Amino acid sequence: MELIQEHADLSAYLVADDVVDHDHPTVRETAAALRAAAGAGAHAYAEAAFEFVRDTVPHSADSGDLRVSWRASDVLATRNGICYAKSHALAALLRAEGIPTAFCYQRLVDEHECGDSCSGGAGACPGGPAAVHGLVAVLLPGRDAWARLDPRGNKPGVDARFSLDEERLAFPVRPELGEVDYPVLHADPHPPTVRALRNSADRLALWANLPTALPA
């Protein structure tokens, strides 16, 4: 899939704002610790930041945490968040070190097993709910192509890795089930995803507010 930059100017992918607040002391301190541990080089730092968010910030659906975090500094402070929130945190850590970072999205469908009576016939059927899944893309020095990274957090059946040449995402899309890779590289988190986070009192309410698709 060809990724499409929303903005030609890479400085748009380095901005700090209310969501990706990489000027916050918590983000800066975390970035400094990761940089010290990773050593010199943007590649080593990016991999360390990815693994830090993937592995030390549990996805709240896995941990059972009912809190909803959305601002990058809060995600790092509370060590909690869903995919959107974890993407905000990773983007903040990468942008804090001058690495252009974009927001990417997929439309995923829950799959169920059904019988001959189902309209889809026997076997796997796209009969479950759809939801938009969030991840990031990075453009490291010396490379001419963006690489998508998914910090969602691994679990049985999910094995996302830091990989620049061959994607190792949490959820490769299945077009036959109506799943979609959105190609646009967004400089800011997509508004429907941020609204869902900010307008949900807890994670149970958030599940009802998750966007099922992104507008064209």
TrEMBL record:
<feature type="domain" description="Transglutaminase-like">
    <location>
        <begin position="42"/>
        <end position="151"/>
    </location>
</feature>
<protein>
    <submittedName>
        <fullName>Transglutaminase</fullName>
    </submittedName>
</protein>
<dbReference type="Pfam" id="PF01841">
    <property type="entry name" value="Transglut_core"/>
</dbReference>
<dbReference type="InterPro" id="IPR038765">
    <property type="entry name" value="Papain-like_cys_pep_sf"/>
</dbReference>
<dbReference type="InterPro" id="IPR002931">
    <property type="entry name" value="Transglutaminase-like"/>
</dbReference>
